[in-house]
Amino acid sequence: MISFAIIVAVVVSFATVSKQGYGIPVLLYHHVLPEAYNRNFIDNPAVISMENFTEQMQYLYDNDFHTLSLDELYSILFEGADIPPRSVMIQFDDGYYSNIVYALPVLRDFGFTAQLFLITHLVEAQGDYQPQIDHDDLTWTAARSLIGTEDVFETASHTHNLHREGLLYHANRGQIIEDTLRSFEFVNDHRAFAYPRGQYNDAVVEALQYAGIRMAFTVQEGYITANSNPMHLNRFVVFRDTNMSRFHNIVHGRRSGVISRVLSRIGEF
Questions:
Q1: Fold of 3-268
Q2: Residue 256: which pLDDT band, with cuts at 50, 70 and 90?
């Protein structure tokens, strides 16, 4: 039984920041399904419709947004590179096969790139077999399904087998290092990491850095700037009810100032 949970960062903004001086918005998605096929997850706010996802990507395309790669982000954080105008990052956590079936063609049509943060023991468990997508349950991505997606997707670690609630947070240093190095066998970027449910502490950060991680993403709302702590990088979770007004505000720098963080269980599978 796998818990599908995230930390929701509650944000209030009282001012509009102009131009790209606000930093980089990182858009975080999970499961993407066509509305007509979403029968079992209708009450799960992290399952976004393909129709909404397509509308959001169309907006980014129509407004000349540029999707950053992990290399570009690394250059901004560590090498003093400027943030290109209209920069955004698109990311998916966990490794649902719906990201390949439904999100990939949309991203490819618009010429966008994105990152997949994979729970790699689930990739390993698929072996060479990719099941057909089950719209009423979760289908995980097999390694073979990632072949040929490199023009769109970079892959990075969301742990190998420490994703379940509290495991990473309470693991010892050796367990974290071993798990992270194991996950590297299934992903193509060994510098980036997404914290499960956004949970971490100083010991987790130190162990990840020892394993080679240089950029780690939370689920705390806010923008990435050149001065951001690379091991505490903000993201905006895109929910089922994220309307175009809120989406517009996020990508144009009108959401900032975290005032609280709330741990929310949003589904059990």
A1: TIM Barrel (3.20.20)
A2: low
Delimit the domains of the chain by residue range. Answer: 3-268
Neighbouring residues of 225: CB distance < 8 A, sequence distance ≥ 6: 23, 24, 83
Q: Distance between terminal CA atoms of the chain?
A: 6
> How far apart are alpha carbons 223 and 160 in whole angstroms?
27
Q: Which is nearest to 235 in space by CA: 254, 216, 252?
A: 216
Left if phi > 0, otherwise alpha if psi is -120 to 50, otherwise beta: which for 23?
left
Angle (CA) 32-44-100 rounded to 5° is 15
Distances (CA, A) of 208 to 29, 81, 92, 168, 191: 23, 24, 20, 11, 10
Residue of 61, 56, 14 whose CA lies nearest to 32: 56
Instruction: Note the Cα 107 to chain centre separation in Å.
Output: 15
Residues in the chain: 269
Q: For residue 18, how many other CB atoms are within 10 A of its CB?
A: 9
**DSSP secondary structure letters along 186-243:** G-S-SSEEE-GGG---HHHHHHHHHHT--EEE-S----B-TTS-TTSB--EEPPTT--
Q: What is the mean pLDDT of the chain?
A: 89
